[in-house]
Amino acid sequence: QVQLVESGGGLVQPGGSLRLSCAASGSPFSINDMGWYRQTPENLRELVASITSGGSTNYADSVKGRFTISRDNAPNTVYLQMNSLKPEDTGVYYCNSREPYGLGHIDYWGQGTQVTVSS
Fold first, then answer.
1. Strand 10-12 to strand 113-117: parallel, antiparallel, or no bridges (unpaired)?
2. How far apart are CA 119 and CA 117, in angstroms?
């Protein structure tokens, strides 16, 4: 089992910055791929950014050049630095941990943190 606790959301003006944090516990963090997802108006979770256990990163086209994902295996935390925020970045952001399991994986989710970009 993995427990994920997000923090760092809030209200920010367009062009501002926020840094989200996700603290993980309960499983070997270093072997898990980690990601940040955002809830869409259709109630789906879309990938914002991900980072593998080896440090490779992937970003949604809409956030490339503005957001940076990073991880610190001690103390088991993944970050999302969000710069040049836009109103369309508004949403609930969820931390994801993907644990290898057999030939597949198990996904764990945090409770979500609200990001609101508005003037």
1. parallel
2. 7
